[in-house]
Design the sequence.
């Protein structure tokens, strides 16, 4: 893990603080009672559900801790966390079963 | 302005929001731990949680920071993850848009998954609520969560420094995110959006500056929106 310099961290924190606030404020503050175009809302609905899997997929297939070698414990943990989250709709249950799978398999493999 | 017992609506909101402390607290803890692992000091970590106040975006920024992504891409990607709060803001507007600007300015800062979900359910169930009642309900619903999110972050940041490397925390972040994806898969369109994003992300992994993430995200969004249109057309 490389050391990140402090200026970069502050730029990101401040940038995200301002940006997130603007995202929240734009509609409720500025748009007020005017209606919004349906095509915009339709795309906004799928932002998180697209970006988050796109961020995670390469980390699952080529984990950095194993220098990019596909890894059974990590793949299994990913599958368990996703499945439990989908079935139970419970984020914490999914985190804990995923973590248990990861540690269980890491222990067995090692 | 303040009509019939606004106070009772505050407590209604508080009660509806209370179960989410079991999400906010551990989530804050995780963020504190990850941020410390990534090399943020306690002031940076606390400022991050208190000002940005958006778990998924914060986790995204941390992950990309560790991959040496250019600052601009980190900002765009994390804000893209947070675009959903803009959608929440948009759909709360018909209910709260008539409140005074200073109230809307404060409420904007507190738009998170939980306050949005509680409020929309309540506002739809009780269409006769006045604007002040809705506003006080909204603030009530987020009151139990905010302090515990910040407290959780603090505890995580303090604990984080004491966690040994052998704990394979490299993968705790992906697990956290994957756990969040499951409950988001509400319709076929959501599933397709995620699948398209995954495939494009894997194909564009060699694109510099982690730009593949934005390409994949955009592809997923378009795919989700198109499927939604198709399903609507088939229905009618």
Sequence:
């Amino acid at each position: 893990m490389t050391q990140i310099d402090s200026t970069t961290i502050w730029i990101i924190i401040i940038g995200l603080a301002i940006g997130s606030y603007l995202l929240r404020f734009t509609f409720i503050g500025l748009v007020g009672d005017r209606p919004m175009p349906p095509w915009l809302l339709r795309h906004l609905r799928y932002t998180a559900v697209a970006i988050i899997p796109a961020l995670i997929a390469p980390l699952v297939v080529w984990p950095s801790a194993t220098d990019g070698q596909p890894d059974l414990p990590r793949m299994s943990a990913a599958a368990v966390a996703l499945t439990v989250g989908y079935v139970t709709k419970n984020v914490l249950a999914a985190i804990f079963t995923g973590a248990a799978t990861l540690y269980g398999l890491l222990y067995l493999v090692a | 302005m303040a009509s019939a017992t606004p106070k009772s609506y505050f407590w209604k909101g508080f009660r509806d929001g209370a179960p989410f402390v079991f999400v906010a607290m551990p989530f804050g803890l995780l963020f504190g731990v990850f941020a410390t692992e990534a090399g943020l000091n306690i002031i940076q970590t606390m400022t991050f949680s208190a000002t940005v106040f958006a778990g998924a975006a914060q986790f995204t920024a941390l992950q990309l920071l560790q991959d040496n992504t250019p600052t601009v891409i980190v900002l765009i990607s994390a804000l893209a993850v947070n675009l959903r709060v803009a959608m929440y803001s948009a759909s709360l507007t018909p209910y709260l848009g008539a409140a005074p600007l200073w109230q809307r300015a404060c409420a904007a800062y507190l738009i998170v998954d939980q306050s949005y979900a509680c409020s929309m359910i309540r506002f739809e169930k009780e269409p006769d609520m006045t604007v002040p009642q809705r506003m006080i309900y909204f603030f009530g619903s987020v009151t139990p969560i905010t302090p515990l999110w910040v407290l959780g972050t603090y505890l995580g940041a303090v604990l984080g420094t004491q966690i040994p490397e052998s704990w394979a925390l490299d993968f705790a972040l992906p697990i956290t995110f994957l756990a969040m994806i499951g409950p988001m898969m509400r319709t076929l369109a959501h599933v397709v959006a995620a699948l398209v994003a995954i495939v494009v992300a894997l194909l564009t992994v060699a694109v510099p500056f982690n730009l593949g993430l934005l390409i994949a995200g955009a592809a997923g969004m378009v795919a989700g929106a198109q499927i939604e249109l198709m399903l609507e057309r088939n229905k009618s």
Remarks:
- The longest helix of chain A spans residues 6-31.
- Chain A touches chain B through 77 residues (CB under 8 Å).
